[in-house]
Amino acid sequence: MNHSPELQNAIIPHSRPTLGLKESRVVADVIDSGYIAEGKVVKQFESAFAEFLGVDHATSTSSGTSALHLTLLAMGLGPGAEVIIPSYVCSALLNAVNYTGATPVPAEIDPDTYNLEVADVQRRINNRTKAIIVPHLFGLASDLEPLLDLDVPVIEDCAQSIGATYRRRPVGTLGTAAIFSFYATKVITTGEGGMAVSNCGDIAARIKDLKTYDKREDYQVRYNYKMTDMQAALGLVQMQRLASIIRRRKAIAAEYNRAFNGFDLKLPPADAGHIYFRYVLGLNMDCMPWIQKLARKGIACDRPINLPLHRCLKLKGYPVTEKVWQQSLSIPIYPTLTDEEIARVIDAVGTCHQKFC
User: Fold this and answer.
1) Domains of the chain, with CATH numbers?
2) Mode of pairing for the β-strands spanning 129-135 and 82-86
């Protein structure tokens, strides 16, 4: 397809939030009210989120990382405990575990789904293992049932997967607890922000107690992990958009699937519950030449994970994670992509495929 010079020179970003006039208006309303810190709008957002998922408790936080930190603390994790996490994941998980003084134990991933590999998790469990953090990576639910059968508490990391389902059940509702992220380019956004959810009243109460330090009769280390009413107002509108956001993501993924079917590339797994937070192509070579060539064509692409955790910790012995990290390419997929931009992405990927495959 031919494109105008102006379109050819325009950069298509790798990620972009989905925002509109309604978001601007509700944030302005909060500002006009004169109450912009955590207040009644935050409570409305927490209630709406709990109702959406069908869980008993939802507690807003300043980020997905702080939600995970508080959840780990609320579950009693600290020095002497081990927490299994995938190596192929954002370093926020590593940070949250380290904040508590517990020991992170990276595990291998499944080469098809990029989620935790159950057999490797089983091999790493011992009497110090107190939790498994299970990300639903790139919007695809992890295979939870065999992980839940290991008799170790599971924390679902739904930072990239709000609205995804596992066997027709919403992710975030099956483990002991779950966390969500609302960073600027996540599925829905509050700019920054997160949510911790659980059906366990004791865990939820502990999270609520730890997230703010002020006006307490006793002293213990607590945190300033609150969400503002401005963020919550944004989140309420974004939740109203969630169904349409997911429909658009799935529609773009379907276009990509049709275009790249038959290419010598690994396409994302087909699953009815997949929401395609990322559209990740598996290559048969290092992804950097693709990233550089696509950038010259005005298409911003990236490694979907900046650096696997075994590299951060200078550990050896993660061949699947290492290969996936080197050979995976994340291309733009978000609701505000125009049809013209989608066509440009498809053309550019096709050009790279001809050159490199």
Assistant:
1) 21-236 (3.40.640.10), 242-356 (3.90.1150.10)
2) parallel
Cα gap 234→239, rounded to integer Å: 9
pLDDT of residue 357: 87
Predicted confidence at residue 217, as pLDDT, reads 92
CA distance 303 to 283: 11
pLDDT averaged per 10 residues in sequence order, the chain, 357 residues: 57 97 98 97 98 98 98 98 98 98 98 98 98 98 98 98 98 98 98 98 98 94 98 98 98 98 96 97 98 98 98 97 98 98 98 95
Count CA within 13 A, CB hemisphere, residue 245. Answer: 25
What ranges in the chain are assigned the alpha helix state H? 5-9, 21-33, 40-53, 64-74, 91-100, 118-124, 144-148, 201-210, 229-260, 288-296, 309-312, 319-327, 339-356
Length of the chain in terms of residues written: 357
CB atoms within 10 A of CB 185: 13
Q: Are strands 57-61 and 194-198 parallel, antiparallel or unpaired?
A: antiparallel
CA dist 345 and 266 (Å) reads 17
Query: Which residues are registered as beta bridge partners of 166?
Result: 169
Closest alpha carbon to 280 in 266, 295, 299, 260: 266
Residue 165, classified by CB atoms within 10 Å of its CB into exposed (0-12), middle (13-18) or buried (19+), is: middle
pLDDT of the residue at 7: 52
